[in-house]
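Archive record
______________

***
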Amino acid sequence: MIGPYQEQAEIFSVRRAGEYVEFTVVAPRIAAAFKPGHFVAVAVGGENTAMILRRAFAIAGVTPGDTFAGTVQFVVAEHGPGTRWLVQRRPGETLDVVGPLGTPFPLPSAAAPAVLVGGGYGSAPLLPLAQALLGQGAPVEIVLGASSANRLYGELASKRLVGQVTVTTDDGSAGEKGRVTDVLPAAIDRIRAEIVYACGPMPMLRAVGDVAKERAIRAQVAVEEAMACGIGVCMTCVLPVRGADGKSRFVRSCVDGPVFDALNVRWADVGTLPPDLVGADAMGGH
């Protein structure tokens, strides 16, 4: 099974997790095709809504096969009208869900020590990734950060999964006071990590990429760009990224990502139209 698939997914459970809401929906075809790093696009507002754009959420886990008929988990943070409507849904209701979408995290060809870094509910896709890496026999550490304790996600699940979990919060309400990049170098050194994976806000991903570069290891990052259609049509999620030929182009996070090598993302130019991008003149750049 490859996908993506559109499913009318019954809500199996809704659980509050700090500032977030965790949904488990019955979507067997999506669950069967899932790989860590994939996301789903959920229609919001109901049948008669004016909100035509879907909302994208990283998949936090699946139970494929016959267990609970194949369920998919994703985590929602309430930001605007669409997510406000979504967090009011209850078990037994149905959601229109498309997935799995995007490119998954690339796994090493052999077991390689890895540090996984999550910011806020950006830690959601890292849990199934950790399971996959542990399945290869790789040592794994997890670093979780947020502005405050109620904005952390997956701390207990991470601690059950791996031996070493470091938590940071901006206000010191949980774990160590500070940012994930304050503790990341020690985590890399502890297990002699060969790769870093990260998901969270763009400034955090840029900083994680800088730390990995200083340690001469690769960082694979899942960006949190606004993804509406999920299939590369609407162009709301474009990023300036260097290709294998050394030239920079706008790529669509939803189909070319959301996972990128941190070295290739032009972090300083996100949200702009750099004149040296391939095709920039045709798009109005000068």
Notes: The helical segments are 28-33, 81-87, 126-135, 155-161, 180-191, 202-214, 253-256. Confidence is low (pLDDT under 50) at residues 282-286. The first helix runs from residue 28 to 33. The two ends are 45 Å apart (CA to CA).
